[in-house]
Amino acid sequence: MKPVIAITIGDFNGIGPEIALKAAVHPSVRKICSPLLVGPLNVFEHAAKQFKLNIKLQKAVFPVPRNTITYVHDVGDGIWADVHYGETSKAAGKTAGVAIERAVDVCVRGQAKAMVTAPVSKEALRLAGYDFPGQTEMIALLSRSQRVAMMLVSDVMRIGLATIHVPIASVVQHLTKEKIVEKATIIHETLQKQYRVKKPTIAVLGLNPHAGENGCIGEEERTLILPAIEDLRTSNIAVEGPFAADAFFGQKAYKHYDAVLAMYHDQGLIPLKMSSFETGVNFSAGLKIIRTSPDHGTAFDIAGKGKANISSMLEAVKLAVKFTQAQS
Question: What span, in angstroms and rounded, lies between the C-alpha atoms of 9 and 298?
């Protein structure tokens, strides 16, 4: 039986509704799952009409029937949804936030096997009262997951992050030996469980240029990263490093490892997006539920124009389905 996959609307002033709808009716998606759109039914109807999509939408009942109708878990009651493409608004943030809450809920209840989140505006979420650095942290709290590691994956490489949505100036304060050990352990478990890699190998990047060059350009490699690597090896987790990030990616050394642990957001995500921008997928490893998302943002500049590329969204749905199968 095809699994039900919840797909959130994202920010309705961005490309969220467009890519969610187009993914839900795409043949490659319908073949492997029953998509459940999560967001205001009237906004999805408006978007379907605007983008001239031949799609029959209907308010969802549970359990979700498996047929050609696309069901919507309607979160529109009491939510003002005034669409202004390309603008940041409290209304869009509120809708995006409630959609995330409902999608997590149906996954926790077992009414959906996984959730795929369309892009949101962090600024809009904050205007609506959601004080989270990003969707990853919000979903972790809502699903009561004690551990989570943000991973960006593609056919080229798999990147995990030691720190996520923090300013560069604050990375060192957020980076600890314990956090590096925790994130590497989650990545190791994910490679074994979801990717079926029996003996994963993980490359750990340094924080500073030249991986600190023996303390000449920073001490974090010696005081934080190397001790973490030693602890991980004691736990029989195969890790190597710390590697100088520029040479590591420049020499394509990632090909020799099952995953890479980067110390901060852009260190890992820039090379991944340069190699796989249209097919990369964000996966929240370690959660009690399965959550994926495309590797791009709200794209306010092209919102409402029908130009959004859905490749990453399709890959996010496919990966979510793959991971549900790994659990069964």
Answer: 11
pTM: 0.93
Q: What is the pLDDT of residue 197?
A: 96
Q: What angle do CA 69, 5, 199 make, to 5 degrees?
A: 150
Phi-psi region of 215 (alpha: psi -120 to 50; beta: other; left: phi over 0): left
Task: Confirm if 216 and 180 have CB atoms less than 8 A apart.
Answer: no
Question: Which residue, 198, 222, 202, 199, is CA-closest to 210?
Answer: 222
Write out the residue range of the structural domain in which residue 16 sits.
1-145+288-328
The residue that leads in pLDDT, 56 or 114, is 114
Question: Using CA atoms, how far apart are residues 121 and 119, in angstroms rounded to an integer?
Answer: 7
Residues 113 and 211 both lie in one domain:
no
* Structural contact between residues 71 and 37, judged by C-beta atoms closer than 8 angstroms: yes
Around Cβ 172, how many Cβ atoms within 10 Å? 18
Residue 1 shares a structural domain with residue 117: yes
Burial class of residue 31 (count of CB atoms within 10 Å of its CB; 0-12, 13-18, 19+): exposed
Q: Quick one: which of 295, 293, 304, 297 has its CA closest to 13?
A: 304
* Number of separate domains in the chain: 2
